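sry for the spam today, last one i promise. struct tokens for design, 322 residues
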């Protein structure tokens, strides 16, 4: 019960802070929506004329109306929605938020009920609540890696089409039809944006916004520079394709050299938790001394802090930016 009250207070404080930050933007958005609504619902001057169509796109962030209205005014919701799209998950932002709350409160309450260690339960609440978000980030990174793998072949296909005398837009259309997912869907959206009248710079800007990958930035920069200054587009795309392949080869080589360090980090981070759980299943009375005695709690908190610091140090060492 104590943990539930503390977590509710922290959550309420965060909600009030977010509302304070986004109050001005939400007010402006509401006034703009009200003006558009007044224009849409204005009486028709000529008899028999049809009412104007409402072409605004309304995206639902949650199936719960109250939660959806709250998320519409929070500045963090669009970022979470973009992250879900980049991960290719059919979740809503409301589902992600509710899942994080349920995991955090449920795990924290069970830990507090069993151990009566409030600080430990609060830490487990934060870790369990971040679990769904970490899963979304993992799926997002996995999809980005898949795109990096398929991107050189898609560029080679574009080069072949442009050499045959077609335009860049036609080359993107062929990639949108023939390439495997997820490259096909991203190029299809870029192709459709140009087909419906958006200029090349705007389409490339949206392309980078949907896929914040260095390889995509290189492609967009090469295409836009060629459009403004001229040059051989096929040679530029071939150079970009070669650069992406060399970058992937270097990443694989770095991954091989850092595999032992990453495995060491995983073992050091997971071994205390797994070993402690197994020892608790075999001898609950002995292991329970860690949270029933003051010295045991100090040892438990110290080991958790030391393990976290060690894991972060190992991650910093093996995470080589290319």
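last one done:
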């Amino acid at each position: 019960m104590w943990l539930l009250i503390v977590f509710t207070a922290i959550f309420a404080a965060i909600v009030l802070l977010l509302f304070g930050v986004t109050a001005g933007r939400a007010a402006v958005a509401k006034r703009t929506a009200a003006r558009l609504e007044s224009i849409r619902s204005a009486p028709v001057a000529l008899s028999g004329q049809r009412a104007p169509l409402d072409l605004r796109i309304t995206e639902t962030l949650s199936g719960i109306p109250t939660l959806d209205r709250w998320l519409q005014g929070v500045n963090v919701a669009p970022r979470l929605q973009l992250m879900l799209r980049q991960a290719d998950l059919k979740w809503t932002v409301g589902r992600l938020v509710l899942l994080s709350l349920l995991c955090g409160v449920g795990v924290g309450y069970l830990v507090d009920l069993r151990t009566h260690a409030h600080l430990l339960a609060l830490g487990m609440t934060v870790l369990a609540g971040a679990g769904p978000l970490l899963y979304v980030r993992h799926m997002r990174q996995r999809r980005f890696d898949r795109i990096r793998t398929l991107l050189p072949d898609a560029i080679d296909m574009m080069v072949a089409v442009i050499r045959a005398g077609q335009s860049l837009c036609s080359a993107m259309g062929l990639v949108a039809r023939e390439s495997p997912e997820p490259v096909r869907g991203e190029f299809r959206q870029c192709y459709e944006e140009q087909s419906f009248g958006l200029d090349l710079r705007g389409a490339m800007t949206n392309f980078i916004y949907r896929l914040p990958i260095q390889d995509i930035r290189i492609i967009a920069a090469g295409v836009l520079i060629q459009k403004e200054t001229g040059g051989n587009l096929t040679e530029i795309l071939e150079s970009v394709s070669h650069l992406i392949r060399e970058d992937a080869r270097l990443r694989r080589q770095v991954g091989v050299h850092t595999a032992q360090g990453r495995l060491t980090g995983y073992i050091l981070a997971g071994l205390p938790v797994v070993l402690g759980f197994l020892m608790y299943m075999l001898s609950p009375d002995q292991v329970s001394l860690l949270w029933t005695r003051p010295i045991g709690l100090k040892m438990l908190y110290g080991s958790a802090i030391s393990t976290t610091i060690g894991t972060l140090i190992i991650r910093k060492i093996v995470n080589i930016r290319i």
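Residues 258-318 form one domain. ok im logging off now
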